[in-house]
Amino acid sequence: MPAAKSVGSAFAATGGWLQKYGAWLIPVGVAVVGLTAVLSAQAITTGIVTGVFSVYRGAILLWSSVTRIATGVQAVFNAVMSANPVGLITCGPFGASG
Q1: Residue range 50-61: average pLDDT?
Q2: Considering the entire predicted model, what is its pTM?
């Protein structure tokens, strides 16, 4: 079985190479694992921040809608008050003087 012998010799050569150069390979492996952990933490944090900004945007849009509705209600109230005879009497002098 020449294939098994060549696989065995490849494993033996790899083992020898790791024994010879393995001392600098450990810090490289630690660096790769550390970088992977940092990038994963950054991706998780980015997702959380995106979610928080989405909630904030929704709150701003809701408040804008409430403000528009309140402006419309105030405009209707002003029209009703101006059409009221008491409102005409009280607002008339101010309108005439301004």
Answers
A1: 97
A2: 0.53
